[in-house]
Amino acid sequence: MALTSKITTYTPEWPQRYEADKTLLVSAFGDELLAMHHVGSTAVPQLAAKPEIDVLIEVSEHRNEAARDEVLLSLGYVRGSDLSEGHHFYRRNVGEVRTHKIHICRRGHLSVIQMLKFRDLLRNDASLRQRYQDLKIELEATNTGGMAEYLEKKGPFILAALLEGGIRL
């Protein structure tokens, strides 16, 4: 089973792609929108990544979800399964290739804390960034179970990094 896209070297185009989509995404949220963040590996300079832009959106409440889904669908996003209670997930593909992912959580949700803190740890620690990159490349090369396997095998590294970084979960 393949991953949703191939890991490639970092490109400065990724933050530009995030910024271009950010203005479009605002229209789906109204006054529930609190903040929008570029997260995931494409948000970390010098880190190889699957070229999929991860957007974390913090909302005050999950309300008007049907209207939100309609606007996001018009922008090419399809709602996936919730990743946890209160962690809504959307994806956008071009053909068979994943290009964007959106994570929508209420402010203070554990996923918000984890995604922002892990991104910042990677941005500020070259050794951690290199070890994470090496792990991702190894997991891609040995993957037989698709994205679920890939994410499951990255999990312990992420959790350990957060704990070592003093993040209480």
UniProtKB/TrEMBL annotation:
Domain of life: Bacteria
Transmembrane segments: none
UniProt cross-references to SUPFAM superfamilies, sorted A to Z: Nucleotidyltransferase (SSF81301)
A Pfam family per the record: GrpB
Entry-linked PANTHER family: GRPB DOMAIN PROTEIN (AFU_ORTHOLOGUE AFUA_1G01530), GRPB FAMILY PROTEIN
Protein name per its UniProtKB record: GrpB family protein
Classification lineage: Bacteria, Pseudomonadati, Pseudomonadota, Gammaproteobacteria, Pseudomonadales
